[in-house]
Amino acid sequence: MSDIIHLLPDSVANQIAAGEVIQRPASVIKELVENAIDAEAQNIHVLVTDAGKTGMQVIDDGKGMSEMDARLSFERHATSKIREANDLFALRTMGFRGEALASIAAVAEVELKTRQESDELGTRLVVAASRVETQEPISCSKGSNFSVKNLFFNIPARRKFLKANSTELSNILTEFERIALVHPEVSFSLYSNDSELFNLPASPLRQRILAVFGKKLNQQLLNVEVNTTMISVSGYVAKPETARKKGAHQYFFVNGRYMRHPYFHRAVMEAYEQLIPSGEQVSYFLYFEVDPANIDVNIHPTKTEIKFENEQAIWQILSAAVKEALGKSSAIPSIDFDTEDMPDIPAFEQNLPPAPPQVHYNSDFNPFKPSSGGSGGGGGGSYERQKVDWEDLYSGLTKASKMNAPQPDDEWEDESVETLPSGEESQLSAVSGASSNLYADSVIEKGNLHLQFKGRFILTSVKSGLMLIDQHRAHVRVLFDRYMVQISQKQGVAQGVLFPEIIQLPASEAAVLDGLVDDLSAVGFDLSNLGGGSYAINGIPSGIEGLNPVELVRNMVHTAIEKGSDVKEEVRQILALTLARAAAIVYGQVLSNDEMVSLVDSLFACASPNYTPDGKTVLTTIKEDDIERLFK
């Protein structure tokens, strides 16, 4: 039998490696900018065309490379960062594997111009699909200039799955922000289609954070600083009153490298326990300095997941540091003993035995004795009225208010708008057909009054028994269908506002909003781009008066980012569902009979009245036979 195992050609191996390292244009920007920082560059310029699909360029004033280094840099596992295995345990650089440039050159056309300060001439190198096409001396400035064009030109399947320009640009800006936040001593600039999005001069850390996310954060940040033999933690956390449901800026950095760490995230949020509502988040920018020998950054292709040797001890240090920052700023409630009305604390005298507690009561009190003032009924005096526990009467409304509270982020997955497979769609249509038969047997009787129960359910009599309708979910179903029609037909009616609201977004979120403007306009939003990530809300959809339009737009942007939806129809469903939830009748709202009749009629005019857009039950029927059985 002949041998079947053989070595892959370098071009194929490079494309396989590129599948792990280079996933989208943002991956290219990340690798090139990190290499520029490792080259000790002080000024880095990033230029992007068509969200990186057409071209990307990264220019730095770092050390540059010699002619031989420029050629070797595109070979796999060629690196200047490590020389032996032990160097892996003392890494303080960004990239080190030697796969980035080889992976980029395997799936794109790359042109490199580079020169060292000591050389008179630099080197120009052109590589496409792992093949060197040109190498020649050239006159150029000190540093390196990488130009990457036609990403995934030789892998059409990978290029086809790239997202819309707004989504890919948002990913590029997110990677750019992470690097800019951890290197405030370096000057950065970023241009998209010749439009300047970032111009960040070298500055202190706090000023860099404000330059990236807006000056509004200046009054919200609290300083965190702790130094131990195991780890040093510095940075900023936000005040508890700035907590919000979505859109918090949360960043961990370890030795100058961005990381995700859910375990440490819980340590930060534990410090805010009972200070912020459940399910809300706060912003934080925390920087760790730790011995490289105690961490492993090589457990993930993108190096965003890092393993620590003493995670439990670091958890305690981090939580204590955040609590100390909150305590210093009086964010945590405390007892103030420096007041004139300080309570008298009796001194303990050791020679005297402790006195037993004294119980004081009125022995002449008689609850049936008439009060002295006023004249009563036949008894000749007024009696003291028995106290009524009014809280029990409002227990139902308290429960309803809890139902209206925003749900935590981990429950959002259950409420997402999902596209069902064809088999499930046919099954759902069969259920809808069966439900239509149910409606035929459950015709609402004419002239019947609707009843409201516990401020949540609408009860009405039907031919087959008693129908219960969830008023909030029913209204969500009605509004969702209405907004979807408005978006598809662009029939949204805008209600002008007297004073325009201003919303300020980071560049990464503003790029997503730019892709949603058309659909928001179709619903009824009137937005004006003021530049610099600022937008003026001049009009809102009719019917949502009383809601906060700034938070509403912000939530829709964050939801689109979380879902990562790129299909136009899915984005429209997200917008329609977010608006419907915000504008729907809340639990506890008292409805008149006419309002209940109008809501029920609108519900049964929908194509799928028995389920909300996210698949929750809207109505149910208790059959007459089941009711009669209860009284046997």
From TrEMBL:
**Record-linked SUPFAM superfamilies:** ATPase domain of HSP90 chaperone/DNA topoisomerase II/histidine kinase (SSF55874), DNA mismatch repair protein MutL (SSF118116), Ribosomal protein S5 domain 2-like (SSF54211)
Entry's Gene Ontology BP terms: mismatch repair
Pfam families from the UniProt entry: DNA_mis_repair, HATPase_c_3, MutL_C
One GO molecular function term of this record is: ATP binding
Compositional bias segments (type: Gly residues): 373-382
Positions the record marks as coiled coil are none
Q: Which residues form the signal peptide?
A: none
Q: Does the keyword Plastid apply?
A: no
Using the record's annotation, list all stretches that form the MutL C-terminal dimerisation domain.
Answer: 449-591
Query: Superkingdom of the source?
Result: Bacteria
UniProt cross-references to InterPro entries, sorted A to Z: DNA_mismatch_repair_CS, DNA_mismatch_repair_MutL, DNA_mismatch_S5_2-like, HATPase_C_sf, MutL/Mlh/PMS, MutL/Mlh/Pms-like, MutL_C, MutL_C_dimsub
The record places domain DNA mismatch repair protein S5 at 209-327
Q: Spell out the Gene3D superfamilies in the cross-references.
A: 3.30.230.10, Histidine kinase-like ATPase, C-terminal domain (3.30.565.10), MutL, C-terminal domain, dimerisation subdomain (3.30.1540.20), MutL, C-terminal domain, regulatory subdomain (3.30.1370.100)
Q: Which UniProt keywords apply?
A: DNA damage, DNA repair
**Where do the record's region annotations for Disordered lie?**
340-385, 400-428
- Entry GO terms, CC: mismatch repair complex
Q: Where is the composition biased (Acidic residues)?
A: 408-417
Family statement: Belongs to the DNA mismatch repair MutL/HexB family.
Its biological purpose is as follows: This protein is involved in the repair of mismatches in DNA. It is required for dam-dependent methyl-directed DNA mismatch repair. May act as a 'molecular matchmaker', a protein that promotes the formation of a stable complex between two or more DNA-binding proteins in an ATP-dependent manner without itself being part of a final effector complex.
Instruction: Quote the protein name from its UniProt record.
Output: DNA mismatch repair protein MutL
Question: What organism is listed for this UniProt entry?
Answer: Bacteroides reticulotermitis
Tell me what gene encodes this: mutL
